[in-house]
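Protocol check, entry for the methods section draft. Step 1: assemble the input record (protein sequence plus ligand SMILES). Step 2: submit for complex structure prediction. Step 3: store the structure tokens unaltered in the notebook. Ligand used here: magnesium ion. Step 1 record:
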Amino acid sequence: MAADPATALALLAEGRIEVHGRLTDASNAVLYCTAALDGLTAPCVYKPVAGERPLWDFPDGTLAGREVAAYELAAATGWALVPPTVLRDGPHGPGMLQLWVEPDEDAPELLALQDPAGPEEGWLPIVRAEVAEGRTALLVHRDDERLRRLAVLDAVLNNADRKGGHWIPAADGRIYGIDHGVTFNTEGKLRTLLWGWAEQPLTAEALHVLARLAADLDGPLAERLRPHLTPAELDATRARTALLRRTGRHPLPSPDWPSIPWPPV
Ligand SMILES: Nc1ncnc2c1ncn2[C@@H]1O[C@H](COP(=O)(O)OP(=O)(O)O)[C@@H](O)[C@H]1O
Ligand SMILES: [Mg+2]
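Step 3, stored output:
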């Protein structure tokens, strides 16, 4: 279903929603649902705006719209890194509805704690962490091209919450990012585990995607983002895209902002 976004979007936007339960590890109201339309049924999450916990640094009632904006921008990259997401009315009022991604329990771990002298081959360092009385370990993520694309996407989104639980390896071999409520702030808030490529040159593929994105942000994509973002937030998105293209490098953590989500999962 995630591979067929047009069908998924129609199902999410127009399907009949049935709520089955509530995700208990969530800080906002996150409801596990199914959406049904024309004989098709798909699992999804529904996050009603009324269930959004107020935050000091994001205007109230805007998180669901930011999730949809994150989907729209991610879709424009062509990387299919965010499951289809729509804004619509539901049983608890307006909210976002997003296709459920079934985690692949057999997928290899993408995060690990390794010897501080590391990282091992195929892994990249995030941060040294104290794990017990005086003992340190190196938190690492895999050197994985899917994660690297997600790091580029997050830099454009200004994602303030890319912890380990916010990407899901699926059975189709893809990784899907979720929980994009705290994105698109005008202030730099990039908080992520994916620092393994910090300051390294962007791949030629990423630069190509960013060039297309820059044009799209002055065209059709802007129209799709406008309902969800302020003009200043849209401008800041253009500016982040331009900066990435100008430097040609992955960003570095900001010294003025906690750049690593803690706890990391
Ligand atoms: N599209 C999705 N597919 C599969 N699981 C999801 C999806 N969206 C959310 N979840 C699950 O629900 C949990 C809470 O959702 P999340 O978006 O992180 O909410 P919150 O904003 O409250 O942190 C996630 O940690 C994840 O386990
Ligand atoms: Mg979350």
